[in-house]
Design brief:
Distance between the termini: 48 Å
Largest sheet: 6 strands, antiparallel
Strand content: 25-35%
Shape: elongated
CATH architecture of the largest domain: Sandwich
Strand order of the largest sheet: 6-17-14-19-12-9
Helix content: 10-25%
Mean pLDDT: 89
CATH superfamily of the largest domain: Alpha-ketoglutarate-dependent dioxygenase AlkB-like
Number of strands: 19
Structural class: alpha+beta
CATH topology of the largest domain: Jelly Rolls
Order of helices and strands: EHEEHEHEHEHEEEEEHEEEEEEHEE
Length: 280
């Protein structure tokens, strides 16, 4: 492994030595020291990083031996093979704890909390109308309204921030999301009950992309039949969780109350709506 800074004392010297090492085959891949990610030398993400955080490798074996994983942007196929399914059976769930940098996450949290048209909608449970224990909003393609628990949400137009997030996660998810449900958990008293995203409008095996910004909250999964099969995942600031395959047929998920948490959390669940009507 070669540190970018070690290639010389001046920009000219560093550039010249880097070019020579690439031509000689000593350098074939770049890496990000902070998050331990390796990728191609022309990856746009790599070109933006500070020289102090950049390293180089001769080959993939060297990168992996140093604990680096493939970049989701420039090496998507290798990244898919690197991913580990978190479910023991009957579905697929993948988790990326630092898909967005801290700087990106802070900026997007501030933008979303200020720009999104948040509402606390009433829902009907067991014939009774109650306010949801969180704020919500629905954005996406203009012909994709969203209906659940007796209410219908008409979509707002995509914002630049939402399109930025959407573009980044679609590379990993392998689909083009048409809509996003946003949930604002104001503190640990706000929650989401057990449910499955299994409406027919989402398709046979829905792909759900979940992005989180703000205070970490615990995401719980429970098998629909084998109740002892439980998985808990801390959804951290800037993380991305992907559910696909048969997950919605066999697993329930929830965000339980955590009274000790005082900070807010914004969650975005991107999905593909197959028709003009949707359910949750």
């Amino acid at each position: 492994m070669i540190a970018h800074r070690s290639l010389g004392n001046t920009p000219f010297e560093i550039s010249r030595n880097l070019k020579n090492k690439i031509l000689s085959g000593e350098i074939a891949l770049g890496g990000y020291r902070k998050n331990k990610i390796y990728g191609t030398l022309n990856c746009t993400s790599g070109k933006r990083m500070k020289i102090e955080n950049r390293v180089f490798f001769k080959n993939e074996a060297e990168a992996i031996a140093n604990g680096y994983r493939p970049c989701a942007h420039c090496l998507p196929e290798k990244y898919k093979h690197w991913m580990q399914n978190l479910l023991p059976e009957d579905g697929e769930v993948y988790f990326y704890p630092e898909l967005f940098t801290t700087v990106e996450s802070d900026r997007l949290y501030e933008l979303l909390s200020r720009e999104i048209e948040w509402k606390q909608e009433p829902i009907f449970i067991m014939g009774k109308s109650i306010l949801q224990p969180r704020l919500t909003a629905w954005y996406g393609d203009i012909d994709k309204p969203y209906s659940y628990s007796g209410i219908t949400m008409e979509p707002h137009h995509w914002t630049p921030a939402l399109l930025e997030i959407k573009s980044k996660i679609e590379t990993i998810a392998g689909v083009c999301f048409t809509s996003v449900l946003l949930n604002f958990y104001r503190d640990g008293k706000d929650s989401m009950g057990w449910h499955r995203d299994n409406e027919k409008e989402l398709g046979v095996n829905p792909v759900i992309g979940s992005v989180s910004f703000g205070s970490p909250r615990t995401f719980c999964l429970k098998h629909y039949k084998e109740k002892t099969l439980i998985k808990k995942i801390p959804l951290t600031h800037g993380s991305f969780l992907l559910m696909k395959g048969s997950t919605q047929h066999h697993w329930l998920h929830s965000i339980p109350k955590q009274p000790g948490i005082t900070g807010g959390r914004i969650n975005l669940t991107f999905r593909v709506i197959k028709t003009a009507r949707s359910g949750f």
